[in-house]
Amino acid sequence: MASQDLSPLRFNPKTGEAYIPFPAPHTNLILTPPRLTDANANYAMMNDPKVISTLEGPPYPYLESHATEWVTSITKEAEAALQEYKDAVAQSTDGSRKLVSRCPVRYIREVQEDGTDVYLGDVDIHRCGYPDVQDAAERARLCRENESRELGDPELMWCIGDCLASSHHGKGIMTAAFRTLMTEWYVPCMGVKAMRVEAFEGNIGSVKVFEKNGFKMVDTVPCPKLNPYGVLRTGLHVLIWRASST
């Protein structure tokens, strides 16, 4: 039996791990699934003030047990996402493929000269939870409505979460990572037609990443809050991308 064409995924010939390479000039970077061995790197990143100051959600203090639990959870999700894609390919007819609901590769890694790699960051896509909507009942209504939409629906809104090692900020890596995922997976494999992202007010770097990928700033929602790390957040920038807008 002929092997499945699982493009755009490629597979490491030694480990069998799925990956998507970055285009030039970042040819030493790849996107892979998370690994159970990433817990230490995740723990270190989630304790870097330059990283966590831009995030909402990680526990504080962030313990090694949190890292182990998180990496275990998303590794299982990635395995399920890969199997979903394999099943979709197997069921394809006339050259068309069934849309899938997840992406199996999300971790950014820098490949070293000896073939090993270093974890640099994470890009996640999920159905939107509308964190900027302050009214709990309205937020719940929007989430229910969004969850009910079928894959490929132009009104199905997806949200993005991302983080990058502070040692690699300002090098265009996150811009390239998101563009690669958008063009190679989100749009063709998941049928994504609408995305939104929230960035804390003043987080210009994150805003620029998404504006460079076609997102438009649509609102800045006031929501003053002192986070557990002692950073005062005054509001959320909301940016939206639609397939028809690019």
TrEMBL record:
<feature type="domain" description="N-acetyltransferase">
    <location>
        <begin position="29"/>
        <end position="216"/>
    </location>
</feature>
<dbReference type="Pfam" id="PF13302">
    <property type="entry name" value="Acetyltransf_3"/>
</dbReference>
<protein>
    <recommendedName>
        <fullName>N-acetyltransferase domain-containing protein</fullName>
    </recommendedName>
</protein>
<dbReference type="InterPro" id="IPR016181">
    <property type="entry name" value="Acyl_CoA_acyltransferase"/>
</dbReference>
<dbReference type="GO" id="GO:0016747">
    <property type="term" value="F:acyltransferase activity, transferring groups other than amino-acyl groups"/>
</dbReference>
<dbReference type="InterPro" id="IPR000182">
    <property type="entry name" value="GNAT_dom"/>
</dbReference>
